Amino acid sequence: MENNTIIELEECPSCRGVGSIVHEGGWNVQVECCDCGAHTVYVEYSNDAEKQDAERSVARLWNMGKVIKLDPGE
Ligand SMILES: [Zn+2]
Question: How many A from CA of 32 to the centre of ligand 1?
Fold first, then answer.
């Protein structure tokens, strides 16, 4: 079944850089900024259907600006 929804990501809410969807360990996903490292929370999934939902969830969080920013100059 071909059902790949194209997920559109806004620019980084923190630095206006490019966000990308990052999967980790094959069971969770987040959106992370390539430039400043700001990222959303992880969303876990356990199968392909949940995986697509998880991608959409983190993309939505990212597009709403709900990201965790790294503290600069720590
Ligand atoms: Zn950024």
Answer: 8
Ligand 1 centre distance from Cα of residue 62 (Å)? 11
Residue 9 CA to ligand 1 center (angstroms) comes to: 12
| pTM confidence score | 0.86
Over residues 2-11, the pLDDT tens digits come to 556 688 999 9
Residue 6, pLDDT score: 80
Binning the chain into helix, strand and coil, the percentages to the nearest 5 are 20, 20, 55
Domain extents in the chain:
19-63
Residue 38 CA to ligand 1 center (angstroms) comes to: 5
Using alpha carbons only, give the angle 61, 63, 69 rounded to the nearest 5 degrees.
70
pLDDT on residue 22: 97
